[in-house]
Amino acid sequence: MAEFVRVCEAAVLPPGHAARVEIDGEPVAVFNVDGAYFALDDTCSHALASLSEGELDVRGCAIECPLHGSKFDLRTGEPRCLPAVEPVRTHAIELRDGALWVALRREQRV
Ligand code: FES
């Protein structure tokens, strides 16, 4: 079972914002959607782009890749439109005592 790792203070991630953190050298994107937190692989499944630098769709609970525009569902990691066809991994995220903690899911993308 994955261990939770403290990644940042919650204050650095206000609602409507994203940030890139690293866990054991793996880039992870964390998001705040109106107080609900999500964590995904930061690297797009289509090519080398950082999802935390994309446009956050708060209403749709999705992130748009900054390179070619695929939108990924923050709850499932599934792409909602081309060109990406593979999901990105989602990771468990918790708010504890004012900090964000993420448990990295180790299995490979399918
Ligand atoms: S790199 Fe993300 S859609 Fe192409």
Topology of this structure?
Blueprint: E1 4-9, E2 18-23, E3 26-33, E4 36-41, E5 55-57, E6 62-64, E7 71-73, E8 90-96, E9 99-103
Antiparallel strand pairs: 1-9, 2-3, 3-4, 4-8, 5-6, 6-7, 8-9
FE2/S2 (inorganic) cluster binds next to loops.
Please tag this protein with its features.
110 residues; mainly beta; Rieske Iron-sulfur Protein; 6-stranded antiparallel β-sheet; 3-stranded antiparallel β-sheet; 0% helix; 43% strand; globular; binds FE2/S2 (inorganic) cluster
Count of individual domains: 1
**Low-pLDDT ranges:** none
**Biggest β-sheet, characterized?**
6 strands, antiparallel
Proportion in helices? under 10%
Count of DSSP strands: 9
What report would you give on this structure?
The structure is a single chain. The chain has one domain: Rieske [2Fe-2S] iron-sulphur domain (Rieske Iron-sulfur Protein, 3-layer Sandwich), CATH 2.102.10.10. With 110 residues, the chain is mostly beta strands. Strands 1-9-8-4-3-2 form a six-stranded antiparallel β-sheet, with no helix packed on it. A three-stranded antiparallel β-sheet has the order 5-6-7, with no helix packed on it. The mean pLDDT is 96. The protein is globular. The relative contact order is 0.25. 0% of the residues lie in helices and 43% in strands. The site of FE2/S2 (inorganic) cluster (FES) has 10 residues, from loops.
